[in-house]
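Database export, one record per block. Field names are fixed; values are copied verbatim from the stored entry.
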Amino acid sequence: MIEDLSPEDSFRLQVLLAQNLRAVRIEESEVSPVLHALTDKGEASIPLSPNCRLDKYLRLIRELLSGHALGSPGGYPVFLSRWTRHGQMEGLNLGRLLLTGEPEAVVAVVHSPGLTDELARDAWWAMPSSENARLMLSREKVAKGAMGPILADYLVEHLPFLQDEHLDIMDTVVVLLNSGVLTEATREAIWRRGKRSNTHYVAFLEVAGWDSPQALPLPLPARTDLMVGDGSAALARALEAQGQTFLAAAEEILERPETQEVVNRTLNALGRYFAFGSPQAQSESRMNVCQALAPHLEAAARLARMSEEQVTPIFARSSAIGSLMRRKIEPVVNGVLADIRLLRGEM
């Protein structure tokens, strides 16, 4: 018998540990705690029968599991999770961590650069959550593996429940777009959510300015009333269908941003998207463009210089969000909106 555990649990755990386990999780219910195990033959469950306070009993069980999996009888060494978050887990059998029944151990596996598609499957079984799904889907091996579509479907399904968690919305949509798993119909559906919550647009604007840019869904018509010729690349991009779509989304965001992170990331996305060529090339292009285009050229050039630095002095003195934040950043944002509206032909 395993000391201090109830006789029935002691026997069942000995039988369970004799099998080839892949992962363990524990339901910490005060009424009916259960230990679940994933084995090569399927799932197994052991209803637990505590003979002392539940937290103490579960600690004893996790010490047993850790001793069996890692040779660490004192329980899961929590410092391993700190190592993993800093990418220092090389040489450790990550699969063994999933046998400890410790949520922190699952987090350690999810953060590890050594995560594989198979490990992701077992970690997902052990602890399915939005954060774990984002982290795992951000790994190329996982995104291109069998778990890619599974994790993406989960994140898409749970995206509406994030509601006012604006940072999570942006991070989730970035991971989804970068995964390469989404169908065009799903990309369009997420894009349309921007009409109800403009934070959804931010990630699209970010990936549109990457080295390997992604096209924005449902593009607006290009502007054909202005002819740039050999002038500014930034202005030419603004007048294209993708540029007009980008500007329209950025305008919707900056008219009513909800958090400082939304503002920062939108301004950074604007700068990256329109930053074309060296300052010298931009200066030369201004000399080659007819005078009628000069205001549009200057507007495109200002957008190309945009970044979060424009609002850093404001945010350094205030943690405001919502309407109060919007009032504080009006001196910056109003100028940006004026440039956007000029390039969209709205003024």
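Remark 1: Strands lie at 21-27, 34-39, 42-47.
Remark 2: The chain has 20 helices and three strands.
End of record.
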